[in-house]
């Protein structure tokens, strides 16, 4: 048997502790598959005293995580701290510059600096592996980069944030309030250190940027992505969506269009028959469409210690086996610059929910705006009767352009009979 591969692990939180546990619990089968064993020789984390349920005795402890890169015994650096800047970025850069392979779960870092890091890895001929960064335990990176290498991919999409999917599911099935479910997601280790990244759609955008780069061979400019989170999704809209035969999901969708690539993250209403509609709780789904293969849909747990550790260990096994792919599926010289298509050009159907005063003429005012903007209605639903008070009215449109819909929304919100900011949710037929 070959010598053990020596690891330095930075970050011993949900994922770091999960990786150490998995390497310990499945040591013999992982060794058999990798052709050699793994030995964690050095670690770094903020709190030396915390009980993480893993034995850290005998391991070298670095106060400065970046020092792991220069530790002569460390052969592979595993970065599990998080953050697109600061020590995580410095450690990954230092490790690659020192010619050491890196495994990371850090989607923020990859979505922000992935191009430059790939150049560094390429120059040194070492691996930069990140299966854990997208959709947790689902082998989404491997599926796109290796499994679909022969395809021209037209679309990649999915449920990319476990925290949001868990919140939306618990609100729908148990009627629990948003804040309570978010706190539970944090307790379960699903959420980011700053959960605003989850609920505001930023984490899903990081993952979508990574998937789009792999699918389309071009770097994706995060600043050009349309990003909306789930903070405005109400229990009322979740219930009304159900009545209409839909589920509300936070989706990331990137597709190849004439003139470039569209990439957007926002809540969507998907028909209950859609393959992503029944993907609930912390589960993620990744859907890709290739010209040869057609559509594939992968699903599995997208967050939490076990699923994420599963992906980190898979990358370690690849490194031990000597399997190394170009970081973004093509050499960095072939990685094209970003060609974003603006969101205003998106076309689709919309769910529009208004709170309107229950009085004559209101619906005519609203439909008048839609008529002026050439938006036609597919259906309408009014709930309750409360003369002089606010009642919900739902309108589902036929396909129209985003720019038209946004202009209509602005005018509708200004009507005196519309009493609060309308809810607008895009309908997707994934
Ligand atoms: N929790 C999850 O389900 C998933 C997390 N990830 C990613 O994995 C990474 C780690 O996430 P979690 O384990 O959830 O975070 P966490 O907050 O539970 O753990 C972070 C660890 O990094 C350490 N750390 C932070 N800054 C440090 C510094 N300057 N020096 C030394 N140690 C430092 C902390 O002490 C802690 O041990 C992040 O990039 C996250 O986005 C990816 C997929 C799933
Ligand atoms: N916070 C993320 C963790 C995994 O990437 C999520 O909830 O999906
Ligand atoms: Na993954």
From TrEMBL:
PROSITE patterns: ACT (PS51671), HOMOSER_DHGENASE (PS01042). It comes from the Bacteria. InterPro entries: ACT-like_dom_sf, ACT_dom, Asp/hSer_DH_NAD-bd, HDH, HDH_cat, HDH_CS, NAD(P)-bd_dom_sf. Pathway: Amino-acid biosynthesis; L-threonine biosynthesis; L-threonine from L-aspartate: step 3/5; Amino-acid biosynthesis; L-methionine biosynthesis via de novo pathway; L-homoserine from L-aspartate: step 3/3. SUPFAM superfamilies: ACT-like (SSF55021), Glyceraldehyde-3-phosphate dehydrogenase-like, C-terminal domain (SSF55347), NAD(P)-binding Rossmann-fold domains (SSF51735). Keywords: Amino-acid biosynthesis, Methionine biosynthesis, NADP, Oxidoreductase, Threonine biosynthesis. Pfam families: ACT (PF01842), Homoserine_dh (PF00742), NAD_binding_3 (PF03447). Residues 351-426 form the ACT domain. NCBIfam families: PRK06349.1. Belongs to the homoserine dehydrogenase family. This is Homoserine dehydrogenase. It comes from Roseococcus pinisoli.
């Amino acid at each position: 048997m070959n010598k053990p591969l020596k690891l330095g692990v930075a970050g011993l939180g949900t994922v770091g502790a999960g990786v150490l546990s998995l390497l310990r619990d499945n040591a013999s089968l992982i060794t058999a598959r990798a052709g050699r064993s793994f030995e964690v020789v050095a670690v770094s984390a903020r709190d030396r005293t915390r009980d993480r349920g893993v034995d850290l005795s005998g391991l070298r402890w670095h106060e400065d995580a970046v020092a792991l890169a220069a530790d002569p015994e460390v052969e592979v650096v595993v970065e599990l701290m998080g953050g697109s800047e600061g020590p995580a970025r410095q450690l990954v850069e230092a490790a690659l510059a020192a010619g050491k392979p890196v495994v990371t779960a850090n989607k923020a870092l990859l979505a922000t600096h992935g191009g430059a890091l790939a150049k560094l890895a390429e120059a040194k001929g070492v691996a930069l592996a990140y299966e854990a960064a997208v959709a947790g335990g689902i082998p989404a990176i491997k599926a796109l980069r290796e499994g679909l290498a022969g395809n021209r991919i037209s679309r990649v999409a999915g449920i990319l944030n476990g925290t949001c999917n868990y919140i939306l599911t618990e609100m729908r099935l148990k009627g629990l309030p948003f804040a309570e479910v978010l706190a539970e997601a944090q307790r379960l280790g699903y959420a980011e250190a700053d959960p605003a990244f989850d609920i505001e759609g930023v984490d899903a955008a990081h993952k979508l940027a990574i998937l789009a780069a792999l699918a389309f061979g071009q770097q994706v400019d995060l600043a050009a992505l349309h990003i909306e989170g789930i903070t405005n999704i109400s229990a009322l809209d979740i219930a009304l969506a159900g009545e209409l035969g839909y589920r509300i999901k936070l989706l990331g969708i990137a597709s190849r269009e004439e003139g470039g690539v569209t990439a957007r993250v926002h809540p969507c209403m998907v028909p209950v028959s859609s393959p992503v509609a029944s993907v609930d709780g912390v589960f993620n789904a990744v859907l890709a469409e290739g010209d040869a293969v057609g559509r594939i849909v992968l699903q599995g747990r997208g967050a939490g210690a076990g699923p994420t550790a599963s992906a980190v260990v898979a990358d370690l096994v690849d490194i031990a086996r000597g399997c190394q792919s170009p970081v973004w599926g093509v050499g960095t010289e072939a990685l094209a610059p970003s060609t974003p298509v603006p969101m205003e050009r998106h076309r689709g159907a919309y769910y529009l929910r208004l709170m309107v005063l229950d009085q004559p003429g209101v619906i005519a005012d609203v439909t008048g705006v839609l008529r002026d903007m050439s938006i036609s209605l597919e259906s309408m639903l009014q709930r309750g009767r409360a003369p002089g008070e606010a009642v919900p009215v739902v309108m589902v449109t036929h396909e129209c352009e985003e720019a038209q819909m946004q202009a209509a929304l602005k005018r509708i919100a200004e009507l005196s009979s519309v009493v609060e900011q309308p809810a607008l949710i895009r309908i997707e037929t994934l």
